[in-house]
Design goal:
The protein is an all-alpha fold. It contains four helices and no strands. The protein has a domain at 48-76.
Length: 76
């Protein structure tokens, strides 16, 4: 035998025995992921400008006068 390495006859070292008796705590589960882009797109309002304006009117973002003016702009 050479060097300063202790030899334990093929048995665990004290450090290995301690590590085997005291396993590390389990890892936390990963955080939930955001929905895929396709699902986010599906949740958006339709691409019809009149429907989008109607949604803004229903939400209270636009007044009836603003809705009428913008509707005239987008409809031919």
């Amino acid at each position: 035998m050479t060097g300063r390495v202790p030899y334990y006859g093929g048995r665990f070292t004290p450090a290995q025995a301690y590590a085997a008796a005291h396993p590390p705590p389990p890892q936390a589960p990963p955080p939930p992921q955001a929905p895929p882009r396709a699902a986010r797109r599906a949740a958006r309002p339709s691409q019809d400008p009149v429907e989008a304006l109607q949604h803004l009117l229903d939400a209270g973002v636009l007044t009836q006068e603003e809705f009428d003016e913008l509707r005239e702009r987008v409809e031919p």
